[in-house]
Every structure is written in structure tokens, then in C-alpha cells.
């Protein structure tokens, strides 16, 4: 610690300044002593060892829970991503029908096709309606669109299992055969006109049943309680639940 001393060079016969230096040193030490003896407030106390152990224990518990649930969390995110992508693909197909974009000169409309005959169903496709019957006449082996396509052709095939191997299309609500049937949602320009094939539309006696929308249900084979649904109605409105 550095202390300031006065440098005394006084003429002979005059008083020396050594006494002043001693007084200053005594005053400085008294101030330091008071500071060292000043009691600390509670807020200035350090963290105890017990508190550190408790914090580490709590962090460890949360880490174990997170690691144990991580695979399930991943699958839930994959289900959500696949569901929203399906909704976006339906919207994209509708936009194609609304804009009237011509992939080939023979296109009459565009649609999205689902087929649950092969289980587990993990694919759907976007197609171009060439023959103008407002539904898909082919299958997943149908060729992709080209300039000389003379029949319905495929624009894109989407495999939802690429998000997660546990994902699949469980059923399609409000069609004739929800579990193993097929359907296409077709959009024909310019409005576009929406046609949903194989949608429930039947009467038994005086009792008639009409559906105005279908629901494509996606699930995880590792947990049947988790499912998400994309609805599309005859007006082209899309809803994700």
C-alpha cells in the first residue's frame, strides 16, 4: 500500500515536518481498521456449498427428463412439420389451379392424390389433370409430366416418412373407404373449381349423408395417441388441426 509523505526541506532553525507525517500515518491506519471491522450485510454473503449442491441436483433432474423424452419430442416435431407441409402442398396445388399455369399445353387443372391401398401409406402426389375429368386416373407408377404427356401425369411425389420413419397416413375421413380407399382433390381454373373424388354422398331411404370436406389424418406408429389432421372442403378452404 502506498502512502503519501510530505518532503520536508525547511530552512534551518525552523520546525521539522516529521511530526506531521506520523499524524497522517496514524489517521490512515485508523480508517483502514474501521473498514476491515465493518460488518457485512446479508446480501454480501457468498453462496454456501449446500446451495451449490441443490442447484446441481435440480439441473441434473431436468437434464435426465429432457434426454429421456428427446426421441418422443423429435417425433412430435416431425409430425407437426409433415402436417403443415401437407397443408402447404394443398395450397400450392390450389394456387396452380387458380393461376392457370400451363406445365404442358394440355393441362386442364391440378390436384393432389392420396391412396391408402398399400399399407402403411406414406406418400401422396401432386398431378396435372390432362384429360379434364377432374380426378387422377393413374397411380404412383404414372410418369412425370413432359411436353408430350397425353394423360394425367405426376408433378411431384412427397414421402412423409423422410421426416420420420414412424410417420404414416392413417385414414381419410369422409370418403367411401376411409382406411384403405383413395381420393383426389382437383382444382380447375379459373376460379378454381374444386372437386373431391369418392367423398361421402349417398342416401339410404329417406336418410341422406353428404360431406362437404375430407380430413387427411397423419399419425405416428410409435404412439397412436398422437395424430394431426388436414381438412380441405369443397370451397378449397384448408385447415390444419
UniProtKB/TrEMBL annotation:
Keywords: Membrane, Transmembrane, Transmembrane helix. SUPFAM superfamilies: Pili subunits. The chain crosses the membrane at residues 46-68. InterPro entries: N_methyl_site, Pilin-like. This is General secretion pathway GspH domain-containing protein.
